[in-house]
Amino acid sequence: MMGVTTLRDEELISRIQAGDTESFNDLVEVYFPRTYRKVKMLVPADDAEDVTQDIFLNLVRSIDKFKGRSAFATWFNKIVTNRVADYHRRMFRQKGRFTCEEEILKHEPSQEDSSNLEMEDILTKLPEHYREVILKKIYYNLSFAEIASELGMTYEATRSRYRRGIKYAANKIDSDLLHN
Length: 180
What we know:
single chain, globular
């Protein structure tokens, strides 16, 4: 087996598309931890592992569709975004189907998760283009240059989007506090 760190994403993808299952394992080894951390910030902790597994199942089904027109990380991020959005749509529909208060209470988060939920709530209120940059900068500790490269943006645009996202979040927090 060749070490994960010695292969670029594009080479791993090429090998995977050629049928090399070991390369897929290498790709999962690289992407699963960071994907799980991101998903955990966007969905309730109890569901993060299931959503992450769903993302990787979707990756298996669609890896042949990757044509290299963008960086793999950018393409994969779209899968993550779509699966998380699907999760939230599904949960929204399910909440509408609960027939009694007990059922709803079973699905509400516990108070011990409140700090994670506050962060999740703030993140979910951000437009996706802000949330993406903020997560990559704060949570994944990527540099603006790395984020710009992953998202196919300029360095200046990335920094600007980060600043605007932080400002947007601060305004949203202030607005929520005023209305509570």
